[in-house]
Amino acid sequence: MNIPEGYYKPDSSEFCIGFEYERKEIGSKMIPGAQVVEKWHKDIYDPKDFMTVYNYDDWSFDLQEEIDKGDIIVKYLSKEDILSCGFYCRDEIYYTNSQDYELSYLNKYNKWYIIKIEDIPEDCTLIFSGKIKNLTEFKKLLKQLDIK
After folding, report:
1. How many domains, in total, are found in the chain?
2. Degrees to nearest 5, angle at CA 12 with 49 and 45
3. pLDDT tens-digit profile of 3-33?
4. Residue 57 sits in which domain range?
5. For the segment 79-110, what is each residue's pLDDT rounded down to a tens digit?
6. Fewest beta carbons less than 10 Å away: which of 32, 74, 92, 147?
7. Which of 20, 51, 75 is at the close of a domain?
8. How far is the C-alpha of 110 from the C-alpha of 134, rounded, in Å?
9. Which residues have C-beta within 8 Å of that of residue 33, sequence separation ≥ 6?
10. Which of 123, 91, 46, 127 minimizes the C-alpha distance to 23?
């Protein structure tokens, strides 16, 4: 299985409603000698989709089968993802538009970003320090911390 740079093969335990991932679509042109075309398409997870497509009650089995075949990948959290969540960057530090919070990368560890989020109005009180693997985890953290 050839995973593109900046992506990883997820574990089925990571999936929750709203989880962002990419699914491989394989197609070919009906022309003799044409190559098979593989494309990755962004998708948002909903277990009902798997139950409908496979017509099974056990959606987790079908999801794991797709992962094992290499047909599902997830993008690691990137700087672009952080910017897409309403942050802006100045001198390698990310700020919310309201400038109430600052986020900094402390380290990149095995493709996971170790980040630090501080509450600026409260004298840079540390409110989170930990590993974030992908955009869904990052969005969930922002919601839990009530950062808009």
Report:
1. 2
2. 30
3. 888 899 999 899 988 999 998 876 655 566 6
4. 7-75
5. 888 889 888 888 878 888 777 788 876 555 55
6. 32
7. 75
8. 13
9. none
10. 46
